[in-house]
Amino acid sequence: MRTAAVLLAISAIGLAPGAATARRSPVVVELFTAQGCVSCNKANEVMARLGTRPDVITLTWPVDYWDYLGWKDTFAEPDFTDRQRSYEPPLGLRDVYTPQVIVAGEGQASGDDAAAVDDLVARARRGSEEPPDIVFQQRGERVAVGSGRRPRTPAEVWLIRYESSPPEVEVKAGDNRGARLTETDVVRQAVKLGRWKGRPEIYKVPAADQEGLREVILVQEPNGGRILAARKRPDRT
Which residue range forms the structural domain that includes residue 98? Predict the structure, then answer.
């Protein structure tokens, strides 16, 4: 009965149950950075360029483990550092660093190495697996994830809220003292909505902590696994 109700509700918001999407999911490029990191400004430029591509979703996660060097990152959150650390075991890494870029949850490179990042994006674009479709309810109170290949372990559905063009930051202490940094698509809130097992599901979207943020939904294997699907909320008119 619950499955039938979910299918009916998904149909009502415009997602055909069981229908495979005709398009590939955008490639998610995540930058882990810090305002106190000397080499991170070039990585910010790489992200700004990639963010203009319609086939790429960029997310900047400011981390807090360099705060002790003299400048407390104005955007960093401990949870963002935890997300970066979750990628260590599956990627065979021994520690975290900045600027680090993770592409599609399955490849990593230094964020200031534009050629290496571009190569990872190109590899991810060649992936053949069709993702489940993602549909936002018009009022924004719910989001639906359609059917798709059943993951080996239930995937996680994440709501990411980010600021596309936050104010420029003037660093007043530490190794970057005097620098003015421009970051793009800076994450402000990350909420796990629930699990996805390959069948259509609907998830309630919590209220935003801050106005003016954009939203993206990620369907991702747990514990720093592959990103199976992603979609930005369309601009509201």
Answer: 2-232
- Count structural domains, the chain: 1
Q: What residue spans of 38-166 are helical by DSSP H?
A: 40-50, 78-86, 88-91, 114-125
- H or E stretch including 190? strand 186-196
Contact 208, 163 (CB under 8 A): no
Q: Is residue 81 one of the residues assigned to a domain?
A: yes
Q: What is the pTM of this model?
A: 0.90
Q: Is residue 237 part of a domain?
A: no
Residues in the chain: 237
pLDDT tens digits, one per residue of 46-76 = 999 999 999 999 999 999 999 999 999 999 9
Asked, for residue 121, whether it belongs to a domain, the answer is yes
SS3 call for 2: helix
What pLDDT is recorded for position 23? 58
Give me 193's structure tokens.
């909505």
Q: Is 114 helix (H, G, I), strand (E, B) or coil?
A: helix
Which has the closest alpha carbon to 6: 17, 20, 14? 17
Average pLDDT over residues 202-229: 95
Amino acid at residue number 111? G
The pLDDT score that the predictor gives to residue 235 is 77
CB 198, CB 149: distance < 8 Å? yes
CATH label of the domain that carries residue 99: 3.40.30.10
